[in-house]
Amino acid sequence: MTDETPGAPVPHAPAAEGTVVVYRGATLFDGTGAPARGSTSIVIDGPVIRAVGDDAVIAGTLPAGARVFDLDGRFVVPGLIDAHQHIATPPDRPVAEAVLSRLVHSGVTAIRDMADDLRQVGDLARATLVGEIPGPDIRYAALMAGPGFFDDPRTHQVSRGGTPGAVPWMQAITKDTDLRTAVALARGTHASAIKVYADLDRDTVAAVIAEAHRQGIPVWAHATVFPASPGEVVEAGADSVSHVTLLAFEGTDEPLTSYKTKPKVDHERFAAGDDPRIEELFALMRRRGTVLDATAGMWASGALAGEGPEDAARAAADTGLAAVLTAQAHRAGVEIATGTDYETGPEDPFPALHEELAFLVRRCGMSPAQALRSATLIGARSAGAEDVMGTVEPGKLANFVVLEDDPLRDIGHLRSVTLTVKRGRRFERRDYDRTLRPAEVPHPVEAARSAEETHPAEETR
Questions:
Q1: What stretches of 185-261 adopt beta strand conformation (E)?
Q2: Is 248 helix (H, G, I), strand (E, B) or coil?
Q3: How far, rounded to the nearest angstrom, does the alpha carbon of residue 284 sit from its chain's CA centroid?
Q4: What residue spans of 345-428 are helical by DSSP H?
Q5: CATH class of 20-77+395-435
Q6: Domain 79-388+438-460 has CATH 1.10.3720.10
Q7: Sign of the alpha-carbon torsion through 174, 179, 185, 190
Q8: pLDDT tens-digit profile of 366-380?
Q9: What's the pTM value of the predicted model, to 2 decimals?
């Protein structure tokens, strides 16, 4: 064709291969488990890290024309990963773009979108990848659940123009479903995973996971699928499970009939953090390598505070339960990823992931280094992307965050971010502070309430 146009501008495109840039003088926490080290250089070639090493050694190996940024001892950590986001329930492009921009300018270089309207999510993933808009990489899931789930209003929000349960990104599964075709349809959305959500029994969950793995796609599941219990979901081979409070249903003696008829949780039963049935579950998760997407701090957020004393009491009880179970999982050696499942209001300059990390340190017994590992290496593992992100190492994507203050001393120092590098592209925090006005964009929670719609975080209730 002779009349091809270049397409939309890509002002935030990844750095071009062959463009060598050096970040010198870093105090680097690389996420591999090694201690932080000073006087370190990070050499990137386009979107990929080429070398990491001592400043003096690296200086003697640089090609002519390499651009050098001197960090003067500033702290560098791998790009952060939010393992549980919803950016299109319901679809609202301006809100989503505002959230994505705030994320990347706050150190977040990748997210897991845990099932939304994938028609919009797929385009947003493409737009952040090629650089049409600023934002983290997006890995997203297509959802599968039992037919009874699909009268949930959220399924209608994300299936407009189609039938909930009968679109490739939101499928109703029965014992008669041709799972080979169902998984292939889900993969056709370019999803990174299948999310198993609700109203599926043990055998059906196991069959979905087996077929997904046969076709080379991971499964991200609710921790309890109802009637499938947490132990059954883990035993079936789920790669990750979401929402630590749902793990409490492993300890119930009441039947797990359906998503809508959950038995009441006895919070006091778990208050000591040593429930033996939960301990057995965590031992199984550790043996199977199942990642826990805890969403531990979500009930402490303003987004879920509710509108009365009953809502407040429930949020407080669930906050305590989440803290106790997450701490128990951590002590048991379960790998924990940092998902949020909500966002802070538009007046907040930083996203919910910063709150989740603070909650893990202040309420769940993690050190700042352990919380950072959860938000980097384990986040990458939860997304099936450990081969390309999660640590600052040669061969991985050039995804890292530059901070003025030491996050290993105080996790709150993540708010001292001055620069995010994502796929080699620089996102200066000062540009976000100066040019963007997120408060002018409706917050997704408030927008949903004004339209009498259900907020995605209500999936855990």
A1: 193-196, 219-222, 240-242
A2: helix
A3: 23
A4: 352-363, 368-375, 377-382
A5: mainly beta
A6: no
A7: positive
A8: 999 999 999 999 999
A9: 0.94
